[in-house]
Design goal:
A two-stranded antiparallel sheet has the order 1-2. The longest helix has 24 residues. Helix 2 packs antiparallel against helix 3. Strand 1 and strand 2 form a beta hairpin. The chain is 71% helix and 6% strand. The mean pLDDT is 83. It is mainly α and 133 residues long.
Length: 133
């Protein structure tokens, strides 16, 4: 159990498993089962997998200096480079996965509007960046 705890928790505390990791898995399972190829799932997966996956290493690598960090209420320190990586990778992933699903025929070309999708992805990525933590 100790090795799983150290892999799944940033701080190594067992309580962290019940918050972030459990919530992450629950959201993923819900979105996959309800909205597999829907545009909303593309944006959600981009934020969960790409944004969250890149924010931590970029923040640790480029956001070490105090002036590049800010405090998020209950969670602690975040970095501007990490948050920017979250936003940009979420937006880029949404755009690329949306184009892939469009090319694969999952979306009706007559109904799917790329500009509206990108606006929605931008808003969702921005909101997810603000509340991420």
């Amino acid at each position: 159990m100790a090795s799983i705890q150290s892999m799944a928790c940033r701080t190594g505390r067992r309580e962290e498993l019940c918050r972030g990791t459990l919530l992450y898995c629950a959201i993923t399972a819900m979105v996959v089962s309800l909205l597999w190829t829907a545009p909303a799932s593309v944006i959600t997966f981009s934020c969960l997998f790409l944004g969250d996956g890149l924010a931590d290493p970029v923040g640790r690598l480029l956001g070490r200096r105090a002036f590049l960090q800010y405090r998020v209420g209950w969670f602690g320190q975040k970095s501007y480079p990490g948050s920017l990586a979250f936003f940009l990778s979420s937006l880029a992933g949404s755009f690329l996965w949306g184009r892939l699903f469009l090319a694969a025929g999952h979306y009706n070309r007559a109904v799917f509007q790329e500009e509206a999708f990108l606006r929605a992805a931008s808003i969702c990525a921005l909101v997810a960046t603000v509340v991420e933590g």
